[in-house]
Amino acid sequence: KMAVWSRSQRCLQRLQRIPVLSTRLTSSHAMLAVSANQHDFSRQHSAAVGVVAAALATATTVSWAMCEEEPKKKGGFKDKTIASYEDKIRYFAEPSKVFRYFATVEVEGTAYMRVQDFVRAVTPGERQRPEVGLDLFEKHPPTFGLVQKTCLKSRLFKHDKHGNMPDGEDSGLISYDEFLFLLTVLSASPRQFELAFQMFDLDGNGIVDINEFAQVQHAVQKRTPTGKRLPKASQEVVSVSDLERSQMLQRFFGTNGKGKLTLARFKTFVDEVQDDILHLDFVKQNSLGTDTISELEFASMLLKYTRIKPEKAEEYLQRVDTNFPEGTGPGIAYEQVRVFYRCLRMIDDIEMALSLFHSAGGGVTQDDFARAAKTVTGLELGKDIINFIFLMFDEDGDGELSHQEFVKVMKDARSRGLNKGKELPIKNIGRGFSALIKCIKQQIMMGNIENKH
Fold first, then answer.
1. Would the N or C end of the chain have less CB density within 10 A of its end CB?
2. What Å distances lie between residue 139 and 85, 111, 120, 129, 432, CA to CA?
3. pTM here?
4. Is the pLDDT of residue 15 over 50?
């Protein structure tokens, strides 16, 4: 009895999103509720069938009008196959191949990325433009992509509230070295940059020049999984061509490359990059186009950068969907998400604080978690996002955080999966090879049978 009632409720909740159906469904839903209260299975079943039939009849009537208003959704077999292939490139390919696949511009034999290309390169599921691809670039004259002075005051990943980025060529391009550096910005902790900055500030005055900054970049890259897999990086002087097309370097060191960069200005730039990439991700994940994201969408946003088993990820999503069915939760505002990700930059220290609570013999409560985050980062997390985190990572339902799994997923989310090595999953390769051999044998046997007949 309750299964029929539950299924009809979920169906009604989905159909009521269509305004034309709302009035009819509300009255029919009331009829079904009366039947459910009477606990009469035959009446309940008849009412459920009647409600769904009425809803489907009305839905059929309005479906043609809706098809004209809403664009056809993507997600066919071809799109999914290409998206899966591109995600494998992001996860497992060497950084040089990732760059060559997502870069779209070639100037005098050198490949460059637009800022939009970089966003695609680090965002799972974002399709590359169909007319370009691996080592397929748009060829442009030497004057293309030169940074104009008017753009130096703009943020590198400037975009509007809908996530649209300007297409102009006057804001510069991203070279391969800058691509590696920006990957490092997204995957390294602030303390790593601060320490490297101080180490190469030879005179201790809190500033570095363009050559010292190159050493800072390489030092931090060597401490990230992505950087460790690179061949020994060159620390040569930045070329004039790269400087002319680099908004980042010109902001740091001026148009002639002779300026000085302070640690404070550098921290501001890192904050801008991380906040802008986060907001672009937030906008793409948010189906409503508002400043608030649903709990289920936020859970998907956190999980898409981790490599936990799909069954485990589905378990988290199911738990969130059970606690906040059909978007009934209050949602999570972007400002809360931004503050949360600021805290994640210090997830290593937060992990240590949570371990102290655990080693003291008690579990981690919501108050404990909020206190640990504020002590480590100085930031105060909102109640909605803390409640969400505990519901998602409370595996045994005791109201306490399963902090080890939480930390694992959050480290991946903080670095957008760039904290992982690029090794291919050998076990899967072996399993796939065995399946291939088995398939070949089956085909041979089928061929032999056919020949006999």
1. C
2. 25, 9, 20, 15, 39
3. 0.72
4. no
